[in-house]
Amino acid sequence: MIPLTADRRMLGYEVLSSYPDISCFVTTRHGGCSRGSYASFNCTPYTGDDTECVSRNQELLCEGLPQRPVELVIPYQTHGNRILVIGSEYLSASPQRRLAMLQGTDSLVTFERGYCLCISTADCIPILLYDPKHQAIAAVHAGWRGTANCILGHTLAKMRALCHTDGKDVIACIGPGISLASFEVGDEVYETFRESGFQMDYISKWKQETHKYHIDLWAANRLQLLDFGVPSTQVETAEICTFMQHEDFFSARRLGIKSGRILSGIMINT
Q1: In 10 A of CB 192, how many CB atoms?
Q2: What one-character-per-residue DSSP string does the chain give?
Q3: How far apart are CA 242 and CA 26, in angstroms?
Q4: Which segments of the chain have a pLDDT < 70?
Q5: 28, 95, 229, 243: which one has the fewest Cβ atoms less than 10 Å from its Cβ?
Q6: How far apart are the C-alpha atoms of 12 and 17, rounded to whole Å?
Q7: How would DSSP label each residue in 32-53?
Q8: How many angstroms separate the Cα of 77 from the Cα of each of 143, 146, 230?
Q9: Which residues constitute the signal peptide according to the record (predicted)?
């Protein structure tokens, strides 16, 4: 990853840096006004943070981007498989209707310029996708449930259905999240992945000292990209463990559910 701002508020992806028609970012914990477990740069509503602090942090985010978004599209995520296309129906809806449409959504896709698709995470995996050939973008929230249910694969399939996206067309960014070393799971989680057909020797490791499995969510999502035909050279993985680097990135396992969130966003510039 590469720094976007000198104040450490935001990072970007090297693999997307050569595309001037794209803006993208990943927020850190630094440079905002939120307090306590939300300190300090929490840009996500729905978390219990002070609304004025969230609004001010969002304004700082927008000011730091090369181009100001028409809207930060931030869904209320539920670890489900619902994909929302930000198109004519959304754009013609009232603010109240838009908010309703974003409920229970864990993946966003659009062709519209100026609408910044955002995903909120704090140990789950944020994934940003760009198809430069067809000018389509997506933002995906892949926690362990979403990953096991192949929400990334479903999003890629949606892009293929909407605009004939092919694997070779996709640039993919796998953002900061919990690492294999930190993600200890119970047998039921391991079995969920196994029953979903994942290559368990590739995405998991048994720790003899704890008698627990660990799951690699980065690898599990990378497999979905490779299975779709995305070249490995077009996939960038941040390799930042939020649990280990909790002073710089929000981690729900460290701070609790009532805490801030990393915001990952991607936008086609106007």
Answers
A1: 18
A2: -EES-TTSSEEE-GGGTT-TTEEEEEE-S-S----GGG-S----SSSS--HHHHHHHHHHHHHHSSS--SEEE--B--SS--EEEESHHHHTS-HHHHHHHTBT--EEEE--BTEEEEEEESSSEEEEEEETTTTEEEEEEE-HHHHHTTHHHHHHHHHHHHH---GGG-EEEE-SB--TTT-EE-HHHHHHHHHTT--HHHHEEEETTTTEEEE-HHHHHHHHHHHHT--GGGEEE---BTTTTTTTS--HHHH-SSS--EEEEEEE--
A3: 12
A4: none
A5: 95
A6: 8
A7: ----GGG-S----SSSS--HHH
A8: 10, 11, 26
A9: none
Enumerate the β-bridge partners of residue 214.
184, 205
- Please name the CATH architecture into which domain 10-179+217-268 falls: 4-Layer Sandwich (3.60)
Q: How many CB atoms lie within 10 A of CB 196?
A: 12
Amino acid at 214: H
Task: Enumerate the β-bridge partners of residue 264.
Answer: 26, 119
Q: State the Cα–Cα distance between residues 183 and 85, nearest whole angstrom.
A: 31
> In which residue are the tokens 């989680």 written?
189
Instruction: Take residue 75 and report the two structure tokens written for it.
Output: 């869904």
- Give pTM, 2 decimals: 0.98
Cβ proximity of 106 and 147 under 8 Å: no
Mean confidence (pLDDT) of the chain: 97
Phi/psi of residue 99, each to 5°? Answer: -60, -40
Give the DSSP H or E segment for 69: none
